[in-house]
Amino acid sequence: MPSSNKVLKKFLIWRYKHISNRRFIYILSVLVGFTSGLGALILKNFTHFIQESLEGKLVHYYHEVFYFVFPIIGFSLVYLVIKYIIRGPVSHGIPSTLFAISKRKAIMKQYQMVGSILTAPITIGFGGSVGLEGPTVATGAAISSNIARMFHMNQTTRNLMIGCASAGALSSIFKAPIAAIVFAIEVFSLDLTIASMLPLLLASLSAIMTSYFFFGNDVLLPFRIEDVFTVADVPFYLFLGLVAAITSVYFTEVYERIQRFFDSINSPIKKIIFGGIAIGILIYFIPPLYGEGFGVINNLIAGNPEKALENNFLSLNVSNELTVIALLAGLVFFKVIASSLTFGAGGVGGIFAPTLFMGSIMGNCVAKIINYSGVFQTSISESNFTLVGMAGLMAGVLHAPLTAIFLIAEITGGYELFIPLMLTSAISFGIVKYFHPHSVYAMELGRKGELITHDKDHAVLTLMDIDKVIENNFVKLYPEMTLREIVHKAVVKSSRNIFPVVDKKNKHLLGIILLDDIRPIMFDTTLYDSIKVTDVMHNPPEIIVLGKDKMTDIMKKFQDSGAWNLPVVHKNEYYGFVSKSKLLTAYRRKLIEVTS
Q1: In angstroms, rounded to a whole number, what is the distance separating the alpha carbons of residues 27 and 144?
Q2: 487 C-beta neighbours (distance < 10 Å), count
Q3: 577: helix, coil or strand?
Q4: C-alpha neighbours within 13 Å on the C-beta side of residue 6
Q5: Which strand (E) or helix (H) includes residue 501?
């Protein structure tokens, strides 16, 4: 270890002398893209190996009852891996990455580099109804964060490297490099500047080249548009946008409520048992809910919904159009329940694939209903609606309308559907944003006010650390102290003009005394023993509660009160003061750091 540290130190010295910081960031972005591509490769192959071994052999050759037992086995294995091998919490991909950016200065722990690789394939391979995109992003982000730390890069560069990792992950998975860059900017709120654009491009390019090297021309969603968009279809796409918005709100509500239910269960064993049994029942009766579901999506795009639905538990005749519509609607209804149960039971995965799954089925179902109704003279393209439906749900659930538009445009090999993609995504996103200001990814952080957004002022305040602006060099006063003690024990010894009054026993903040409050009487020695602290103290204009008040709240308290110093309490005890001047200085420094 010491020898490796010496080599790294020598390299860093050489790098500072010969490679500029900007060029070194370009080199790192290529490396991050390559590692993200490798992470995607390992996750995909490991997952498909498990799924093919279980679903392709045990279920196919023996009995479908295995569908019922796989999930509980998978969740148990994930629990054991996390507890005894990883020994640290493995959070869901993109939310954990957003948390690292907003509250951990883009520092991710080393075990996070392998956490998702070890747990996500087991979750999905054993039937968990989630996707690999989130874990791939989390893996790449953790690797990029640790690479940036190893080379002593600052917080701004670490944020950029995490963005490069997310772009690389999606570029590698979908072979959609432009959509991947848009995703990094849209979801992680990166600034679109020349300084960030080239590293994102290099990472996305590096990742897709890695994908082509290992996977060749294979793509996750192979499709080419055959049906042409016409202006007459616009009202139908507007309707699809509305349906996508309703479905997105349903997705978000169900997801949040099921997560809250599992949060109320303290025992992880109980979560595994309940979630495992519930998922087992769902995939036993509805096999298409098993795993990611890209096979179902491809069947729908190819116009073969019957193939995806042929194993329905009621053995219904899938040549009947109404039966197909009912089964497709059922898949949309139950997919989010299956995904939420997977997360609640302790599974590790992402919601990107479930969103695409639900969106494709929703679009196909809407097209079938319109065509079956016979109200309109012309029939609409079911394959196009399948694709645009995916974009509509991505825009609504993930709050990423631009990613949705560019992803579908890229995977279809053209921009013929650009207008319907824009229409549907804009309507879905606009409606959902009204009901849910934050995406499923950012819901928890957004509720706490800890989410980094494109609002620069808010972003800087979120990144600031309140502990670094709290000052403790204030002399405390106690209620029973006299004016004599105030002058000799506080005023004479303190360099500050404000004094907190604290209860000696329980350390509660009782009030404050300003130097101006005692200036008229502090030289009148006849009052030294008759006036006590309680006679001159008063309530502070505002109080900052550590752990509860966010930086935006603190700024507002200073603005509303007009004060220059405000006391801080923690667990009902006096903790210190925050001064407006120190707060503004810290803000300016953080702004320079973020924008440099």
Answers
A1: 12
A2: 16
A3: strand
A4: 3
A5: strand 498-502
587: helix, coil or strand?
helix
CA atoms within a 13 Å half-sphere pointing along the CA-CB vector of 560? 11
Q: What is the DSSP letter of 116?
A: H
| Tokens matching residue 361 | 């089925």
Q: Is 95 helix (H, G, I), strand (E, B) or coil?
A: helix
Decide: 145 and 108 in contact? Cβ < 8 Å. Answer: yes
Is the Cβ–Cβ distance between 158 and 593 less than 8 Å?
no
Q: Is 507 left (phi over 0), alpha (psi -120 to 50) or beta?
A: left
Query: Which single residue is written with the structure tokens 């995965």?
Result: 349
The rounded distance, in Å, linking the Cα atoms of 177 and 168 is 8
Contacts of the segment 554-563: beta carbons below 8 A, 24+ positions apart: 554/466, 554/578, 554/583, 555/461, 555/583, 558/583
The identity of residue 353, as a single letter, is: A
Q: Which residues 6+ apart lie within 8 Å of 303 measured at CB?
A: 382, 383
| CA neighbor of 371 nearest in space, from 540, 236, 202, 182 | 236
Dist. CA 535–CA 548, nearest whole Å = 31
Which of 283, 369, 360 has the alpha carbon at shortest distance from 326? 369
Q: Are 325 and 369 in contact (CB under 8 A)?
A: yes
Q: Which two tokens stand for residue 438?
A: 């934050």
**533: amino acid identity, one letter:** V
Q: How far apart are alpha carbons 200 and 202 in whole angstroms? A: 5
Give dist(CA 522, CA 514) in Å, integer. Answer: 12
Report the pLDDT value the prediction gives residue 299, as an integer from 0 to 100.
78
Q: What's the pTM value of the predicted model, to 2 decimals?
A: 0.79
Tell me: the pLDDT tens digits for 330-373? 889 999 999 999 999 989 988 888 999 899 999 999 999 998 88
CA-CA-CA-CA torsion for 406, 412, 416, 422, nearest 10 degrees? -30
Residue with more model confidence, 591 or 534: 534
List, as one string, the DSSP characters of 241-262.
HHHHHHHHHHHHHHHHHHHHHH
The radius of gyration computed from the CA coordinates of the chain, to the nearest angstrom, equals: 29
pLDDT at 335: 92
- What is d(CA 25, CA 195) in angstroms, rounded to the nearest whole number? 10
Question: HEC string of 148-213?
Answer: HHHCCCCHHHHHHHHHHHHHHHHHHHHCCHHHHHHHHHHHCCCCCCHHHHHHHHHHHHHHHHHHHH
- State yes or no: pLDDT of 583 exceeds 70: yes
For residue 491, give the nearest of 470, 479, 502, 477 by alpha carbon.
Answer: 477
Average predicted confidence (pLDDT) for the chain:
85
